[in-house]
UniProtKB/TrEMBL annotation:
Species of provenance: Elaeis guineensis var. tenera
Ranges for domain UBA: 624-665, 686-726
Composition skew (Low complexity), residue ranges: 731-740
Name of the protein described by the UniProt record: Ubiquitin carboxyl-terminal hydrolase
Span of domain USP: 313-811
E.C. code: 3.4.19.12
SMART domains from the UniProt entry: UBA, ZnF_UBP
Record domain UBP-type: where: 161-271
Residues making up the signal peptide according to the UniProt record: none
Keywords noted in UniProt: Hydrolase, Metal-binding, Protease, Repeat, Thiol protease, Ubl conjugation pathway, Zinc, Zinc-finger
The family this protein is said to belong to: Belongs to the peptidase C19 family.
Gene name of this polypeptide: LOC105052689
Single Gene Ontology MF annotation: cysteine-type deubiquitinase activity
Binding locations of Zn(2+): 185, 188, 205, 218
Amino acid sequence: MIPSPMELLRSHLSKVRIPEPTNRIYKQECCISFDTPRSEGGLYVDLFSFLAFGKDYVGWNYVKTGNPVYLHIQQRRKPVPEDRPLKKPTLLAIGMEGGFDNQELEYEETHDIVILPDYVTLPFPSVELPEKVRLAVDSILIAEGAERKGQLASWTSEKKKVSAYAMDLQQINNGVVIPPSGWKCSKCDKTDNLWLNLTDGMILCGRRNWDGSGGNNHAIEHYKETNYPLAVKLGTITADLEGADVFSYPEDDGVEDPLLAQHLAFFGIDFSSLQKTEMTTAERELDQNINFDWNRIQESGQEVEPLFGPGYTGLVNLGNSCYMASTMQVVFSTRSFISRYYEKQSLQMAFEMAPADPTLDLNMQLTKLAYGLLSGKYSFLAQEMDEVGNCKTTTSSAKQEGIPPRMFKTVIAANHPEFSSMRQQDALEFFQHLLDQVERANAEKPEFEPSRSFKFIVEERLQCPSGKVAYNKRTDNILSLNIPLHEAMNKDQLEVFHKMKHERKLEGKEIANDEIVRPRVPLEACLASFSAPEEVHGFYSTALNAKTTAIKTAGLATFPDYLVLHMRKFVMEEGWVPKKLDVYIDVPDIIDITHMRSRGLQPGEELLPETVSSSEKMEPTHVAASEDIVTKLSGMGFNYLHCQKAAINTSNAGIEEAMNWLLSHMNDPDIDDPISDDSKTVELMSIDETSVETLISFGFQEEVARKALKASGGSIEKATDWIFSHPEVSSSVDTDATSSGTQAGDPGVPDGSGTYKLMALISHIGTSTQCGHYVAHVYKDGRWVIFNDSKVGASVNPPKDMGYLYFFERIDN
């Protein structure tokens, strides 16, 4: 006898769970594709794992897990009546009641309960459904989706600090009891954006926004009158108290209140029964940032033809994520990544190999991203509405929605404090982080590891006055190049421009943008500067048993499949102030770097002895705090012990350096520990991570950078000198300290000819790598293509002379 649908559902109730507040619920995007409730077939949410699947993939999950019960969510576009009247705006705003109608498409959402494998369907809502199913579905529908939660967690750039006012907060027993709903500002008629003062129980509206929305400033005015410090936003309080929005007025920031449950109970609030009805401050910031139109930054004045189809899919900007989008568009234009994550691995294969939660698996999410970008499934014309609500598609305004790489960003940025935030990042640093994570993920099968196509071996040759030499080798994936401005091709024009600029300055006049002349430096000169002989002062020669000046040259022992050139446009001026060079690089489409190949130890050369004098071994430097620095700092009100530590850990470099160290280490757990003899030893001191990163950006390895900073008291300048005068330390962490071969046979490093063609570039607009905007240009199918977040088009004038990162593909003979 065939059971009825209801009987079948009841037999599977053990496979239905009611989600807890801490469970991650996916209901906006498939975990192995970019399908959404608006896709054909909708989305299926597993009522046991709370993972979501598109219609083509939910069967895979059933086979893998045996979970049969799903909530089917389908969103269909609502038809727009032809006689829909245009509303006359009464407010100078967009997307607000009374403002301009932005004619967004409207969707109708439907729900069903589906039982696999036969897709038996029961309608929802229905009173006939088992209570457990109804509670589970209701909880899923009202919960914040994990996709959205992940964005918000990233957008809150730093973990909220515990308020200094929370533990000893005084609450006034004035008989106020807060009802569970129906709130209104005590001083106006506002019923949203309301804040409960945790001292006296007053409900008041929030701050007024620049566009007139928000509140009427009554909450902050109340603080100025009473100095009652903490308020919580009503509508953000749920059973998950960590999501509540608590603001400290004296600290002027969102904070954590560990006693929030107690403070709420004082006014009769049972938080376990409340549901979320308001956006938190982080949510508002996120929405405002996502709505920013990044597409204004494009090829100036050019009509870009939009492109669609396989390999032409845009990436939605998640809020300052253009550094990631531009990098991934280039990476998935390389043969190695296309082969590894698209051609040789199916979505189903990746899903079957993935752990229980595929959203946290890098292999799965890279494969998902590859299929999203390369299949063409999501590269189609976005529907727009005209003035009367009809769909319109014109060539000039045609664009695609793109795919949002939220799950990929969550995985690749896991445990990384910067990439997991919503702040802008350096595309170079992200690219190197990506290659590192991909290499680790493929450690068990290095032959399939795609990041190896970027690897090459740099060989440095050091020759001391004795005539003997040392060879150091290191593996790298970026060739970082200085820009020799003195090699500019347009020196005459520059001289005339600077003369005119000086004259205009004396006259008090400005230079027009079209009058600016920038240095134009050939790429050949940048490559030559990498290989040019360089003096290394203070080099300890084991042949002479003394410090001397050595000559260093560098070359490549192997040539990678893909050569990535990093142009050092960001340099340090006096005082370690970063500055961006306003310069053009003349980059040809074809380059030949065969002359840069290093041949290792040559006939007739003699290696330096490997023995290092014991007097040259790195000894810890004992530093006593400068009394002058300590006195000046303590005179500013700082703790005397803290001032001593600041002086010691900056090697008495100066009052400014000590203050910077102090301000960045005030919250260290050991800041109040007494200074012992050991703590005065720089060998054991804590190294400033910013200094380590600065040295790494100069091309030094992390281990070498840390050793140098310890040996030089934390001074970057002294550490740089120490590295050049102690090449034996660099050698100890390199692939091979002294070698007579080129290591071309290294199985982890490819090699081939030195002829390359330009296949992509990432350009940057802005004053710093941590701000501005990144755009990628990729040579595909015989033409240049611009990838500007979700915008993909045929490039009219690719900015080849403005690149920050250049990607060259080797031309095999």
